[in-house]
Amino acid sequence: MNTQVPIVGAIEELRRYVGARRAAGERIGLVPTMGALHAGHLSLVEAARRTADRVVVTIFVNPAQFGPNEDFARYPRTLAADVEKLSSVGADLVFAPMADEIYPPGFATKVVMEGPACADLEDRFRPTHFSGVATVVTKLLNQAQADVAVFGEKDYQQLLVIKRLARDLDIATEILGAPTLREADGLAMSSRNIYLSREERERARQLHDTLTDAARRILHGDDIGAATGAARARLADAGFDIDYLEARHAETLAPVSSLDEGPIRLLAAAKLGATRLIDNIAVQS
Ligand code: PAF
């Protein structure tokens, strides 16, 4: 049986733990999450573990990053199961604050960004999302004072936003990206996959298949606009309602029209029924 990972809810307790471990010469890794943990999250814990002596996981469903018509109320909250999973991978501490610990009465500050937060991708469809993410992540990084924090490449634009905010705000924590974990048919693991009906789940694999084919075409010399256009048409035929599917520079997210402008990333968001899926892959051999 695994020993259950301790849970704290107060910033002060988190700081006390991290302070004591750092005073003992240990390196601290942080994995911020919104809970509803799956194997993808656990792989972030393992990535943190490879570079740190102690791994702290935060679980907080951040209201500020959900738009008014998004799924904040129904977002899965599964703390007991999450804690069990984190215990099984040997996480050292869970920080699971209540909303007023993070946003006390009178809270009046927002981190609003340009650069990767205004790339006309997720931000076009979720205009307040990255301000909500940047605000909470700035707070979590300040609260934890970890040496390194790990975020998934699945939310690729988010990863670049967080790297940039840490750099711009002189936050000393090193920000690491970790690869997307996929189901056997290629669907990127996501806490939102449980919203898919059985029939939608069968079709959902086409998002990754389509991105993979488009990347292959681009690598074989096809015109980028033609390859992404064909990918959009294929997804639309499969019943996806596409928000975007685009080729961008992997570091700046600037639009690209030729392989010479690379490294290139293909990024997509599309709805299947009421469920919005996002995915991205590198265009590389
Ligand atoms: O990727 C997530 O789960 C969230 O956006 C994050 C980084 C934990 C901030 O709430």
List keywords for this structure.
three-stranded antiparallel sheet; Rossmann fold; Pantoate--beta-alanine Ligase, Chain: A,domain 2; single chain; 2 domains; alpha/beta; globular; binds pantoate; 9 helices
The CATH architecture category of the largest domain equals 3-Layer(aba) Sandwich
Measured between the Cα atoms of the first and last residue, the distance is: 43 Å
CATH superfamily of the largest domain: HUPs
User: Could you give a short account of the major beta sheet?
Assistant: 6 strands, parallel
Uncertain regions: pLDDT < 50 for 5+ in a row? none
The total of helices stands at 9
CATH class of the largest domain: Alpha Beta
Do you know the CATH topology of the largest domain? Rossmann fold
Cα gyration radius (Å): 19 Å
Structural class: alpha/beta
Task: Going across the biggest sheet, name each strand in turn.
Answer: 1-4-3-2-5-6
Order of helices and strands: EHEHEHEHHHEHEHHEEE
Beta content comes to: 15-25%
Bound molecules: pantoate
- Mean of the pLDDT scores? 97
Helix content: 25-40%
Number of domains: 2
The shape is globular
Report what the structure shows.
The protein has two domains: 7-178, HUPs (Rossmann fold, 3-Layer(aba) Sandwich), CATH 3.40.50; 191-283, Pantoate--beta-alanine Ligase, Chain: A,domain 2 (2-Layer Sandwich), CATH 3.30.1300.10. It is 38% helix and 19% strand. The protein has nine helices and nine strands. A six-stranded parallel sheet has the order 1-4-3-2-5-6, with helices on both faces. Helix 7 links the parallel strand 5 and strand 6 (174-178). The mean pLDDT is 97. Pantoate (PAF) binds next to strand 2 and helix 6.
